[in-house]
Write a structure and sequence with these properties.
Layout lengths: L11 H4 L16 H10 L3 H6 L8 H32 L6 H18 L7 E2 L2 H16 L4 H21 L11 H28 L17 H34 L9 H9 L1 H12 L3 H7 L33 H7 L2 H4 L10 H6 L1 H22 L12 H18 L5 E2 L3 H8 L2 E6 L6 E6 L6 H12 L4 H4 L4 H14 L5 H8 L20 H23 L7 H19 L2 H7 L45 H7 L1
Antiparallel strand pairs: 1-2, 3-4
Helix pairs in contact: 2-17, 4-5, 4-6, 4-18, 4-19, 5-17, 5-19, 7-16, 7-17, 8-9, 8-21, 8-23, 9-11, 9-12, 9-21, 16-18, 16-24, 23-24
Length: 638
C-alpha cells in the first residue's frame, strides 16, 4: 500500500504531520524541511534496526546485510589506502592513512546512527583529496599553518551546510536530473579507471620509479650493473602487478555477474555475486604468495604506516588549536623534511593570523559547492527509483548532519568526507534482490531490483570495520598493489552499470541494425542524431571536468564547473532540444517521498476467495463475487 511507509503504524499524512485534508501543520518557514524529514524518518528508526523488510527480520535479509557489509568495507578501505598515500605525499606527511581511516570510519558510524538515509556510504573521496592538496598549496602561499587553516575551512563549510539545509536550499537537488548525475557518475568512474591504469602502466611505459636511489649493498663493485639489475627486477614487478590487477578485475566482474551463469544452483550464484570483491581479492592475494610470484612482486604491496593504533601521521595531539595566534603543530615535521638551505628560514613556526582565518571562507565555499553536488548526487543514486525503495528520503536532514560532521572533523585535523560514488549505489544494489530480464531485442539482459533491505546495520558494520582498521594495518599490508588497482578497475567499470551515458556512448559506434530499439531514449519521437548530440554534450562536460580536476591550483575550482551543470540543463539545453526530446532523453523524476503530498488512505480491498467451481461459476449457476460483495452489488453484476 503506497499510502503507508513500510513498518510505520501511521499513514503517511500523519507521519508527515499533515491534516486529513492534506494541509501541512503550521510551522516556521525556517527549518520546516528538516522537520519534515525528521517526521518522515523517526517513526521508521526502530524498523531500520529490527527488520529487514520493514515488518519482519528474515534470514535472507540478514545474509544480505552480511554480504553488503563486507562488500562495502572492501570498496571503502582500498580507496582510503590510496587516498591516504596521496595525501601523505601531497601534504608532506601532515595528513595520511590514519586520518583518512578515522574520517571515513568515524563519519560513517555517525551517519549510520543519526543520518536520515543510511544507505548512502560516507568517506573521503578522490575529489576531496584533490581539494585538500590544493588547500595545502594555498596554505603555503599564504604562510598559514596547514592543519589549523584546513580546520577553519571545514568549520566555515560545515556552518554553510547547516544553513543551506535549514533554509531549504537542498530543494535545489530536485533540479539535478539524470543529465547531471550521469556526467558526474561517469567522471568518478573514469577517475577510478585512470588512476588504476596510471599506477599500473606508468612504470612500464615511462620507467617511473625504476631507478635505484638507495644504498648499495656492501661489496658492490659494479654499480652500473647493479642499477640495471634493479631496473629489470622493478620492471618485472610492474608486469606481475599488471597481471594480478587483470586477474582481480576479471574475477570481480565474473563473480559480479554470476547470476547470468548456468553453472551451479541459483543460491550459489547469488552467493558468488554478493561476495565478488572479497572472493577475488582473497584468491589473488593468496596466489601472490606462491614463491615465484612473491619474488617477482618484491616490495610492491600496500604501503601502510608501521604504527598501529589511533595515532596521527606525525607527533601531535588529535584536537587542533584553531585560535588566532596558534602555532603550526607540524613545525618540527616541516623543519625535518626541509632541505638545509631552507631549514634556517623555518626555525620559527608559522602562526595562524586572523586575516588567514577570514581567507579560509573562499575555499570553504568551494568545498560546500562540491559537497552540495557530490553528496546529494551520491544520495540520489543510492535512492534511484530503479531500486523501488519503500522508505522516504531525508535530503535536508542528511545535509545538516553532513555539515555537523564536516565541522567536527575540522576540529581534529582530518580531511572531510561525503557520499561516495560508486560505493553508495553499489551498496544499495548489494542489499537488493536482483533479477535478470532478457531485452526484447535479444541484445542482452537488464537488471531489475526489488526487496531492498533498508537497514542501518550494513553501513554501521562497514564503517566500524574501517575505523578499526587502524589497528590492523599489517594485515592490510599483505595485499599486492596490483590487486588494489584491479579493485579500482572493477569499481570504475561497475559504476557504469545503469549509466545511460555509457550505453549511449557505445550505441554511437554500434551497427545501426543492431541497436537496441527497446531503450527508452531510442523512442519513435526522438531522432538518433539528437541522441548523438545529447551524448556528445555530456561527454564534453566529462572531459572538461576531468581535465580541470587534474590541473594544479585551478583544480580547487572544479566543483563550480560541476555545479554549473544544473543551470546548463535548465536554461541552455531547452534551446538545443525540443521539450519532447528532453522528456525522452532526460525525463523528470518524481519528487522525493518526503516531499509528496499523499492522499488519505483508502480501505484495502479484500482479495476474492477462490471459487471451487470451474470458470468462476458458483453453485446454482450464479457468479462468485468474493466475500466483500453486497447483495445489491451481486444483483447489479448479474
Amino acid at each position: 500500500n503506497r499510502n503507508r511507509f513500510c513498518g510505520a503504524s501511521k499513514p503517511v499524512w500523519r507521519v508527515l504531520g499533515m491534516e486529513k485534508k492534506g494541509r501541512r501543520r503550521r510551522c516556521s518557514a525556517v527549518g520546516k524541511d528538516v522537520a519534515a524529514d525528521l517526521n518522515g524518518r523517526i517513526p521508521l528508526y526502530k524498523s531500520d534496526w529490527l527488520t529487514t523488510d520493514g515488518r519482519h527480520c528474515r534470514r535472507s535479509g540478514v545474509f544480505k546485510i552480511a554480504s553488503a557489509s563486507l562488500f562495502s568495507y572492501i570498496s571503502s578501505i582500498l580507496p582510503a589506502i590510496v587516498i591516504g598515500n596521496i595525501l601523505d605525499d601531497q601534504t608532506d606527511g601532515q595528513l595520511g592513512l590514519p586520518e583518512v581511516l578515522i574520517s571515513t570510519g568515524g563519519m560513517g558510524v555517525v551517519w549510520a546512527l543519526v543520518g536520515g538515509q543510511p544507505l548512502c556510504i560516507i568517506g573521503v573521496t578522490m575529489p576531496v583529496a584533490i581539494f585538500t592538496s590544493v588547500c595545502y598549496k594555498l596554505a603555503e602561499a599564504l604562510d598559514a599553518p596547514f592543519l589549523p587553516w584546513l580546520g577553519w575551512v571545514c568549520i566555515f563549510s560545515g556552518l554553510m551546510h547547516i544553513a543551506l539545509a535549514i533554509f531549504g536550499a537542498v530543494h535545489f537537488v530536485n533540479k539535478t536530473t539524470a543529465f547531471s548525475c550521469e556526467i558526474f557518475g561517469f567522471f568518478i568512474s573514469v577517475t577510478y579507471i585512470w588512476d588504476a591504469l596510471v599506477a599500473l602502466l606508468d612504470p612500464i611505459i615511462t620507467g617511473k620509479d625504476l631507478d635505484f636511489d638507495g644504498t648499495y649493498p656492501p661489496g658492490t663493485n659494479d654499480t652500473v650493473a647493479y642499477d640495471e639489475l634493479y631496473k629489470t627486477q622493478q620492471r618485472g614487478s610492474a608486469f606481475t602487478n599488471l597481471a594480478l590487477a587483470g586477474g582481480t578485475y576479471v574475477l570481480c566482474m565474473a563473480f559480479h555477474r554470476a547470476q547470468r551463469w548456468r553453472l551451479f544452483t541459483p543460491g550459489v550464484r547469488v552467493l558468488l555475486a554478493d561476495y565478488a570483491a572479497a572472493l577475488s581479492l582473497g584468491f589473488l592475494t593468496a596466489l601472490s604468495y606462491i614463491p615465484v610470484v612473491d619474488d617477482a612482486i618484491g616490495d610492491k604491496r600496500l604501503d601502510v604506516p608501521d604504527d598501529n593504533g589511533l595515532n596521527p601521521s606525525f607527533d601531535r595531539s588529535w584536537p587542533v588549536d584553531l585560535s588566532a595566534g596558534a602555532e603550526d603543530p607540524a613545525a618540527e615535521l616541516i623543519v625535518e623534511s626541509a632541505s638545509n638551505a631552507t631549514a634556517a628560514a623555518l626555525e620559527e613556526p608559522l602562526v595562524l593570523e586572523a586575516w588567514q582565518i577570514a581567507a579560509s571562507i573562499l575555499p570553504a565555499l568551494m568545498l560546500t559547492a562540491l559537497f552540495f553536488f557530490d553528496h546529494n548526487v551520491s544520495s540520489k543514486l543510492a535512492q534511484d527509483p530503479k531500486f523501488h525503495l519503500q522508505k522516504p528520503s531525508a535530503y535536508h536532514w542528511d545535509f545538516s548532519v553532513l555539515g555537523l560532521e564536516v565541522l567536527l572533523v575540522g576540529l581534529f585535523g582530518v580531511p572531510p568526507g561525503n557520499g561516495l560514488i560508486p560505493q553508495a549505489p553499489l551498496h544499495t544494489r548489494a542489499l537488493a534482490t536482483v533479477e535478470l530480464q532478457e531485452r526484447a531485442s535479444g541484445s542482452g539482459h537488464k537488471e531489475t531490483f526489488h526487496s531492498v533491505v533498508e537497514t542501518r546495520w550494513s553501513n554501521l558494520i562497514q564503517s566500524t570495520a574501517v575505523l578499526c582498521s587502524v589497528f590492523a594495518l599489517p594485515a592490510i599490508a599483505v595485499i599486492p598493489q596490483g590487486c588494489l588497482d584491479g579493485v579500482f578497475l572493477f569499481l570504475g567499470m561497475a559504476g557504469f552499470d545503469g549509466n545511460e551515458l555509457w550505453e549511449r556512448m557505445w550505441l554511437m559506434i554500434t551497427q545501426p541494425s543492431l541497436r537496441a530499439r527497446e531503450l527508452r531514449f531510442m523512442g519513435a519521437d526522438t531522432r538518433y542524431s539528437r541522441v548523438q548530440l545529447y551524448t556528445a554534450i555530456q561527454l564534453a562536460f566529462v572531459v572538461l571536468v576531468f581535465v580541470l580536476a587534474k590541473l594544479p591550483y585551478i583544480a580547487v575550482a572544479f566543483p563550480l564547473l560541476i555545479a554549473v551543470l544544473i543551470p546548463c540543463r535548465i536554461y541552455w539545453l531547452p534551446r538545443l532540444f525540443t521539450p519532447a526530446e528532453l522528456d525522452a532523453l532526460d525525463p523528470p523524476e518524481p519528487p522525493p517521498d518526503s516531499a509528496r503530498e499523499p492522499e488519505p488512505m483508502s480501505p484495502r480491498a479484500e482479495p476474492a476467495r477462490p471459487s471451487p467451481w470451474p470458470d468462476g461459476a458458483a453453485e446454482g449457476g450464479g457468479l462468485h463475487l468474493g466475500g466483500s460483495s453486497t447483495l445489491s452489488e451481486a444483483h447489479q453484476a448479474l
